[in-house]
Design goal:
The complex is a heterodimer of chains A (about 400) and B (about 140).
Chain A: E1 3-4, H1 6-15, E2 29-43, E3 49-50, E4 60-61, E5 66-67, E6 73-81, E7 86-96, E8 102-116, E9 119-127, H2 150-153, E10 160-172, E11 175-186, E12 195-209, E13 212-225, H3 229-236, H4 239-249, E14 254-265, E15 270-281, E16 287-297, E17 302-313, H5 332-346, E18 352-364, E19 367-378, E20 386-387, E21 398-409
Chain B: H1 3-25, E1 28-33, E2 40-41, H2 43-50, E3 64-68, H3 73-83, H4 87-98, E4 107-109, H5 112-121, E5 125-130, E6 138-143
Parallel strand pairs in B: 2-6, 3-4, 3-5
Antiparallel strand pairs in B: 1-5, 1-6
Classes of the chains: A mainly beta (about 400), B alpha/beta (about 140).
């Protein structure tokens, strides 16, 4: 799985004057690793697309009967170690981007300094440890599902940020505790326009004890979504009610809080994992919650699993509407158009339940096939995870999604 | 007890004795160099060392765990017996650490002989071997 490249030897000669017989484990090294997923997804809802995250342009259902774009990706990583304290990692991921085409993006690019093996500082690009599997959510091989449950993982659709991380690990009794703090900013690509997160602060704690692992995290950031500005600029033109709506819901440096708790118990022949998470803001996304529980059983190379998940709003927000009666007849069309855009916007949060059944087959070393069936039940007013909605799409309906993924690591 | 039942019981006892005896000869033991004073290690500490959660022996001295190639039977025997984990579980575990830049698996050795030599040569090394293949350069560590 891990092979040192010959170049490591060259580096070793150039970069340090290593005394003869210096231990290999702390000398300079360069490692290449890769992971990838080849996925096919079918969705029974053909008036909209089932997508793997908020930023995907195309998915299964409307754009394609069977889509390879939802889960397929390739990750390439170089890890360089200069000495026992200083190392660097660069990871490039090729996957579907906001424009619908495959393209490479730098997911990780940071330098890590170990004050001690248990106390480390990272500077550069890294992934926010918001939720239990956030940091490796793209590594299909590392998780039991085809993709992490969107009911939780869509709450923070952005995976990486640029900034710093401090990590402190402590050992007591049989426990290992890892406390991480991160600070930074991010600006993901989104087809609908500019979006950014500023002053992202996350505090995450992982407690490991034998087969049990518990994670809790707290965070905050300022969200800017310039893509929504034209709508609110329009709404604002319509008197006091319009100005009130724009003031209340415009997403401009809007503080968002996030929190999560999760756990995994994995004694070997079976496992159980569950997570509960939420985000909270005064702006239009409101108070969102998501949770899931997954149980699996390992029988040789086979791991059948079952998962239930739910996404909901803790405070149901009524969609604000401009009054239609108060404007001259020739402007009524404009007001209706703005109101319908407001409705679309307030439909962004997913509200749904899902039941997933699947099986993973570790058919070779470092390779696995996973087949997963999801039954998704949308709440009455919600479009759930479905985008590119066409006339004929019914919010509040249900859909079946079948996914087959081939995952590997190198 | 009637005849057939007695025969069945005797057969069962004989069979379980055989089954019980085979793993004894092929049993995998945890080893360090003779120069390492370590004689016993708590199971959860062994687990932490081989999962990349810790890199110190209980006395605070640095520890370097070593692996046998996944293709060799003692690999899965070691992980199943001492850590209660299967090879696919270990691969998933290491891919979680590798692709977050948070660790890499122990150095992997191609044979029991290489493992014996590597452990004998480094007082910080911690390895495992079939009980029949240890020699007097190595010390068996009791896992508590």
């Amino acid at each position: 799985m891990v092979r040192a490249l010959p170049i490591a030897t060259a580096l070793a000669c150039c970069l340090v004057n290593s005394p003869a017989g210096a231990e290999e484990s702390s000398g300079p090294s360069l490692l290449f690793n890769a992971y990838g997923t080849l996925g096919a997804v079918y969705s029974s809802e053909d008036h909209a697309d089932f997508v793997g995250n908020l930023f995907q342009d195309e998915g299964a259902g409307y754009s394609a009967t069977v889509s390879h774009k939802v889960d397929s990706r390739l990750g390439l990583q170089l890890t360089g170690r200069l000495n026992s304290r200083l190392s660097a990692v660069v990871q490039v991921v090729v996957e579907q981007e906001a424009d619908g085409d495959y393209g490479p993006r730098v997911e990780w690019a940071n330098v890590q300094y170990e004050f001690t093996p248990d106390f480390t500082l990272r500077v550069g690009r890294m992934v926010q440890p918001s939720f239990m599997v956030s940091e490796y959510r793209k590594v299909g091989f590392a998780t039991p599902w085809v993709r992490p449950p969107e009911e939780v993982y869509r709450l923070i659709p952005v995976t990486n940020f640029d900034g710093v991380e401090i990590s402190y690990r402590s050992h007591f009794g049989g426990y290992t505790n890892t406390l991480r703090g991160t600070y930074g900013r991010t600006e993901p690509d989104w087809a609908d326009g500019e979006v950014s997160g500023e002053d992202i602060l996350t505090l995450s704690n992982t407690l490991e004890w034998g087969d049990l692992s518990l994670v809790a995290s707290l965070g905050r950031y300022d969200l800017n979504v310039e893509a929504f500005d034209p709508l609110f600029d329009g709404v604002e033109l319509f008197g006091a009610p319009g100005r009130a709506i724009a003031r209340r819901y415009r997403v401009d440096e809007e503080p968002v809080a996030l929190f999560s708790v999760g756990g995994r118990y994995d004694p070997g022949h079976w496992f159980l994992m569950a997570e509960w998470a939420g985000t909270s803001t005064e702006a239009l996304l409101g108070d969102l919650r998501g949770a899931y529980a997954t149980a699996g059983y390992r029988a040789g190379a086979w791991t059948p699993f079952v998962s239930v998940a739910r996404a909901w709003a803790a405070n149901e927000q009524a969609t604000p509407q401009l009054p239609t009666g108060a404007v001259p007849p020739q402007l009524e069309g404009v007001v209706q158009a703005l109101n319908s855009e407001l409705e679309d916007l307030f439909n962004l949060p997913i509200k749904q339940r899902s039941l997933s059944l699947g099986a993973r087959w570790d058919f070779a070393s470092s390779m696995a096939l996973t087949l997963q069936y999801d039954y998704i039940d949308l709440r009455s007013d919600s479009s759930g995870v479905f985008t590119n909605r066409q006339p004929g799409f019914q919010p509040g309906g249900s859909a079946s999604v079948v996914s087959l993924s081939f995952d590997f690591v190198y | 007890m009637k005849g057939p039942a007695r025969i069945l019981l005797a057969a069962w006892l004989a069979l379980s004795a055989t089954v019980g005896a085979v793993p004894c000869r092929a049993e995998v033991v945890v080893v360090v160099s003779r120069e390492n004073p370590l004689s016993a290690l708590p199971r959860d500490h062994l687990e932490d060392l081989f999962l990349g959660r810790s890199d110190r022996f209980p006395d605070g001295e640095p520890a370097v765990p070593l692996d046998l190639s996944e293709r060799l039977p003692p690999y899965s025997a070691f992980y199943e017996r001492y850590l209660g984990r299967t090879p696919p579980q270990m691969r998933a575990h290491w891919s979680r650490l590798i692709f977050t830049g948070r660790g890499r698996p122990p150095r992997s050795l191609a044979s029991s002989r290489e493992m014996a030599d590597a452990v004998a040569a480094d007082p910080r090394a911690l390895g495992y071997l079939p009980a029949a293949e240890i020699d007097d350069r190595l010390r068996v560590v009791v896992i508590e």
